[in-house]
Each structure stands twice: as structure tokens, then as C-alpha cells.
Write a structure and sequence with these properties.
The complex is a heterodimer. Chain A is mainly α. Chain A has 13 helices and 2 strands; from the N terminus they run ααααααααααααββα. The chains are: A mainly alpha, B alpha/beta.
């Protein structure tokens, strides 16, 4: 009971420290602005897509227009918020965590704090709990404003959409908490807040910029070999088809069920290449909270798990492949698609908080 | 109240504290003396449970600090050297936070703050601690050390940043709490400060406790050593004859033998007065300068070195 009280005392102080901190308020303010701007942009886009959908529904008579049959998801409104949040949220998490312990070392308050009847794990847990509470408050405000924006524009989400918005909020929290935990770890390792901040930013850049670049063509070519080239006879065939068509842009679709053996072979090799590449990309993405977050948000906000890959062959000709499951993705399918990213996003803060915890327990307070 | 048994602390193979044994009874003000790097702060950190000994143990009220840190910390009030507080909180908010960690409720914290802040001269100061001078922080540190009404108060260099009024307040407070039966440990390298408040001293040298006891006892012990000496000043109304005694090291006669400065191995004023009286010499003054604090400290320190 007493231990719980001490933990709550520390967590309360940390929470109020965050809420009174200028840097927290400043970044939170920026987060609010980008959330509002993102929501308004998202709503405008959603309304536009909805109009197109409604117009399309009224002219449904034509069987050829079946490609635009899907109603836009309300969750698509959150996609631009997610784009901003992946960066601003990361910065918020870093700002909240980088000096939690190092500042106490610098101000010598850590020694006086630990001379009180508290266990070290209560101190580090209290700090984390205070941070979680502050993050929770910040995200709750953002979520309320986001929902209010939807309602102002007359958009009312249904039960399923509310659940997805909830998942969106949770993963957003996990993203920010991941960077918070990394910053907290650096704060326990470094003696100075400046060093902790610099090292956390380096890790942030590594995870949010460098890991995604691992999936570029050069790295991929080195890792899994080059993309299969289209046989010359197929290129010739496509060019012939293009030359006989009118207009400046031509989309050429080949049937995979045809008798063309060269095409079938190329299609098979290309499909295998892209699946392999997708697997490498997905695996490398697991090592970045930002990429996990983006992957989850892409599924939630689009409601579509299909990944379309377009191969340009020049001369206005292109062909497309799909990797992953096709069609609408809902409920269990969405969960199945994001579970790896979700687990990775959960593991990140857990691992770094665990390291911070261990480090803090062994901290030399001389 | 405090017992240190074979207390040892090593950092990377170097012994900062080496097999320290000491006992401090209730109600004593124990001055822990030693030059920089002697192991004073390390000893205090082990005593407060902030670091664990490599060997040996610290007992406070019969409890092992390393095994039962929470119970021991409840009984201790500690002020470290370069005391640090939360810069964005004011004095009362800082004390309230620490009070809650001692299990005090809001009302108890408020009451204790209203007693302690005037005691250390910080009543009515509402600004954040970030705006405090070093001296004000030190005053707040003393208040913090008394917050939980501890049985043991441990102060590391408590007067380092205090002004003369602050030092006087500090001495008054420390003597007051000792009168209440609390044990006070004061670590310092300022001899005069320790001598003014402490009833017992321990001299640390290179991690070892080379002497422990009252200043008087230590000086007495020292006077028994072959190289110890005292200075006796003799002033007479008549010119004095040669003074002789087996303990005299040297004699300087001044002012036409109306004054003599005698360096002796012990206080031989009675013997000198007897000799002069026998010769019919009228005494004007006879004083003895004992072994100074510095001499005592340096003697023990150099002996250990």
C-alpha cells in the first residue's frame, strides 16, 4: 500500500512536471495544430471521394465502371493526421523522455530523491507512469478534437469505425511511447541531458529515416537480386498495342490466364520477386516504430491490405501487380495484417523501458 | 545508534573506504573529518543506503542499511554536498513532495513546512528553487534533512555555502536536535566548523579511520606522543632566572627576562610557577597554548599517511 502510494506520488509529480513544461506544451500545441489541419484536409478529401462515390452510384448502370464501387472509409480522414503524427509524435516522445533522469543527475536532485524511503524501481516506474499519463492526456485531447472535427463536418462514424479510430489512437500512443522509452533509456545512460538528446535523435533518425531507406532499389538489388526484366517480345507486343491506340496515356492489361508462355513465366518470376521484396521490406519495417506505425495506419485508414505495384515499361505502357490479399479488409483480416507490426510496436517501448529500468537500478549516484 | 563494521568500498579495485569501524551513540554530534578524497562522502553514501558496501555493513538503530534500506531511510534525514532540488517547484512544494515520500499526508507536510521554513530562514519565500542562491538551497537542505523528524541526521559539508548568519542558524539547529537525543553526523573538511558543533570526531585518511573520540581525548592522546609539544608563555614582574625542567624543549627569554616562551613536551605550568615562587619572582601571567585543532588533525593525518 505504502509502495503504491510512493509510486503514485512520483508519477503525479512527473505528470504535473510534464504538463507544466514549456517544451511539452509547445510540442503539444504543434501536435494539436497539425491534427486539426490534418483532420480538415482529411475531411475535405473524404467529402470529395464521397461525392465521386455518390455520383458513381447514380450512374452505376455501366458495368465497366465497377472499379470505383468502394465507398470511401471515414478512417481515411485520419491518414494525413498519421503522416504528421509519425514525426511530431516522435519528437514529443523524445522531448518528454530525454532528460527525465539526466536532469536529476545534473541538478543533484536524484541523490536526495533516492535517499528517501523509495525503491529505485518505484522511481523509474513512477517516471514512466507519469510520462504515460501525460502522453495519454495529450492524445486524448487530440482524439477529442479529431472526433469533434468529424462531427462538425457532419461525419458520424459507425461502431466498427469507432473501434478502428480507437486502434489508431492506441498505435499512435505506442509510437510516441516507443520514442519516449528510447529517450528515457538514453537519459539513464548519459550523465548530461544534451548528450541524451543527441543520441536519442540519432536513434530516431536511424529508425525513422535510415531503416526505410534500406528498402530502396540499390539495397534491394544487393540483398535479393535485381528485378526480372520483361522479355523483349512482350515489350514489342505492348508497343504495338500502344501505337494502335489513341490518346496520350494508355493502360495495357494482360491476362494471366492466356496462352502466352513468355508472359506467364515473366509474371511468375516478377510476382515472386515482389513478394520476396515485400517480405524483406516488411521485416525491416519491424525494426522501426515509425514504419510499423505507418504500416498499421495504412491498413486502418485505407481499409485495404492490398499492395499495388506498378511497373513502368516506358512508352506509356505499364502493368500492375498485387501483393497480399485482395479486396476489402475488415475485422479479423485487418488485425491479421497488422499483428506483426502491432507486436513490434509493443516490443519497442517494452525493450527500451526494460533497458532503462535495468540501467537505473544499477545507476551510480556518487 | 550508528555502527560501522568493517565497512569497505572499492571502486574499480581502488579502496575508497577501507575496513572502517566506528560507533556513534545516541545524541552525539559526530564530525567526520578528512581531506578531499579521504572517503567521507563514500562513507556517508553507504550510511544513507545510496551505495552498497563492497564488504562490511552499516547499522542504524540496529538495522543493516543494505538489507533494510526503506526502514533505515525512514529514520534518516540526509543533506548531500551540493544539495539539489526541483528547480520548478518552490521550497514548500519541494518539501511536500519529499514529505509524501516519507508517507506524510498533505496536512502533516504543510504543518512541518510551517515549522521548518522559518527555522532555516526561508519563511515567506515563494519563488521557485531555480531562483535560489546556493546558500538558500543549503538552508532548504537542512530543512529537508529535518523533515521527517529523523533519529539520525547526516549532513555532508553543511556550511559550505552558508553566510555567517546561516552558519550561526545551522549551529543552533544542530545543537538543538542533538539535545533532543538525535544523532547527527557532520562530514566536513572545515576543522573549525566541526570543532564548534561536534561532540565526537572521526578522522579519515585514505579511507581509513585513523582516530575517533572527542577533541579533548584526541589532543590528550596526542600529547602522550614523544614529538608532541605545548607552548607556555610566562610573564613576570621581576626578571626571571633560568627555568629548567626535563620536559622543556626550548626557552626564549624576552623583554629583559620579564617574559619567556617555553616549548615543552607537556603542560608544566605548575612546576614553572613553583620554581618562580621559590625564587621570589612575582608572576604576572602564565598561559599554555595546547595542541591546536589543525595540529591534532594534521598529526593524525600525517601519522596515517
Amino acid at each position: 500500500m505504502m509502495a503504491q502510494s510512493r509510486l503514485i506520488t512520483i508519477a503525479q509529480k512527473e505528470l504535473f512536471d510534464h504538463l507544466r513544461s514549456r517544451k511539452f506544451l509547445l510540442i503539444f500545441g504543434i501536435l494539436l495544430v497539425v491534427a486539426i489541419v490534418g483532420m480538415i484536409g482529411g475531411v475535405t478529401e473524404y467529402n470529395k471521394n464521397l461525392d465521386s462515390y455518390n455520383k458513381h452510384q447514380s450512374t452505376i448502370a455501366s458495368p465497366l465502371s465497377s472499379s470505383m464501387a468502394e465507398k470511401p472509409s471515414i478512417l481515411s480522414v485520419f491518414s494525413s493526421v498519421a503522416t504528421y503524427l509519425v514525426f511530431v509524435g516522435g519528437i514529443l516522445g523524445i522531448a518528454m523522455g530525454f532528460d527525465l533522469v539526466s536532469k536529476e543527475k545534473e541538478s543533484k536532485s536524484l541523490k536526495i530523491l533516492l535517499s528517501h524511503p523509495v525503491y529505485r524501481d518505484e522511481v523509474i516506474n513512477g517516471k514512466a507512469l507519469g510520462g504515460i499519463a501525460a502522453l495519454g492526456c495529450a492524445l486524448a485531447v487530440v482524439l477529442v478534437i479529431a472526433l469533434a472535427t468529424l462531427l462538425v463536418y457532419g461525419i458520424v462514424p459507425d461502431g466498427g469505425e469507432v473501434v478502428l479510430i480507437g486502434i489508431f489512437a492506441i498505435v499512435s500512443f505506442l509510437l510516441i511511447f516507443s520514442y519516449f522509452a528510447i529517450a528515457l533509456f538514453m537519459s539513464t545512460v548519459m550523465d548530461e541531458s544534451g548528450s541524451a538528446l543527441i543520441y536519442t535523435i540519432i536513434v530516431f533518425i536511424l529508425l525513422s529515416v535510415l531503416v526505410p531507406t534500406l528498402a530502396n532499389d540499390t539495397v534491394m538489388e544487393y540483398a535479393i537480386g535485381s528485378q526480372p526484366e520483361i522479355p523483349q517480345e512482350l515489350i514489342d507486343q505492348m508497343q504495338r498495342s500502344a501505337n494502335t491506340s489513341e490518346g496520350s496515356a494508355v493502360s495495357v492489361t494482360f491476362s494471366t490466364k492466356g496462352n502466352n508462355g513468355a508472359w506467364d513465366e515473366f509474371n511468375k518470376r516478377t510476382q515472386a520477386y515482389w513478394e520476396k521484396r515485400q517480405m524483406v521490406e516488411d521485416t525491416s519495417a519491424l525494426f522501426s516504430p515509425s514504419m510499423n506505425y505507418q504500416a498499421i495506419c495504412a491498413v486502418i485508414t485505407a481499409g485495404n491490405t492490398e499492395k499495388n505495384i506498378v511497373i513502368s515499361t516506358g512508352n506509356n505502357a505499364a502493368t500492375a501487380f498485387s501483393v497480399g490479399s485482395e479486396g476489402d479488409a475488415h475485422g479479423e483480416e485487418i488485425l491479421g495484417r497488422i499483428v506483426a507490426n502491432l507486436v513490434a510496436l509493443l516490443l519497442f517501448p517494452a525493450v527500451f523501458f526494460g533497458l532503462a529500468y535495468l540501467r537505473f537500478l544499477r545507476l551510480d549516484v556518487r | 545508534m550508528i555502527q560501522l563494521e568493517h565497512l569497505t568500498k572499492e571502486y574499480n579495485g581502488v579502496r575508497a573506504v577501507d575496513d572502517l569501524n566506528a560507533g556513534i551513540p545516541d545524541g552525539e554530534i559526530f564530525g567526520l573529518l578528512g581531506p578531499n578524497g579521504a572517503g567521507k562522502s563514500t562513507t556517508i553514501l553507504m550510511l544513507t543506503g545510496l551505495i552498497e558496501p563492497t564488504a562490511g555493513r552499516c547499522l542504524v538503530g540496529g538495522l543493516d542499511v543494505a538489507r533494510d534500506p526503506i526502514t533505515v531511510k525512514q529514520q534518516i534525514g540526509y543533506m548531500p554536498e551540493d544539495v539539489g532540488f526541483y528547480a520548478t517547484l518552490n521550497a514548500e512544494e519541494n518539501l511536500t513532495y519529499f514529505g509524501k515520500l516519507y508517507g506524510m499526508d498533505g496536512t502533516a507536510c504543510k504543518k512541518r513546512c510551517s515549522e521548518l521554513l522559518p527555522l532555516v530562514g526561508l519563511d515567506g519565500v515563494t519563488k521557485d528553487v531555480g531562483g535560489f542562491s546556493k546558500g538558500m538551497r543549503q538552508r532548504l537542505g537542512i530543512a529537508k534533512a529535518l523533515l521527517n523528524d529523523p533519529a539520525v541526521i547526516i549532513l555532508d559539508e553543511p556550511t559550505a555555502n552558508l553566510d555567517p548568519q546561516g552558519v550561526a542558524d545551522y549551529r543552533r539547529i544542530i545543537r538543538g536536535v542533538a539535545r533532543e537525543g538525535k544523532t547527527v553526523v557532520v562530514s566536513s573538511h572545515i576543522l573549525e566548523e566541526v570543532s564548534k558543533v561536534s561532540t565526537m570526531v572521526g578522522i579519515l585518511s585514505r579511507g581509513k579511520l585513523v582516530a575517533q573520540g572527542s577533541w579533548r581525548d584526541l589532543a590528550k592522546d596526542l600529547s602522550r606522543k614523544p614529538d608532541a609539544h605545548v607552548t607556555i608563555l610566562v610573564e613576570t614582574q621581576d626578571p626571571m632566572p633560568d627555568i629548567s625542567h626535563q620536559n622543556i624543549i626550548s626557552v626564549d627569554y624576552e623583554r629583559d627576562r620579564h617574559c619567556a616562551v617555553i616549548v615543552a613536551r607537556s603542560d608544566i605550568r605548575d612546576e614553572i610557577a613553583g620554581q618562580l615562587a621559590q625564587g621570589g619572582i612575582r608572576l604576572h601571567g602564565l598561559s599554555c597554548e595546547g595542541i591546536s585543532l589543525e595540529e591534532t588533525f594534521l598529526s593524525y593525518y600525517q601519522t596515517a599517511g
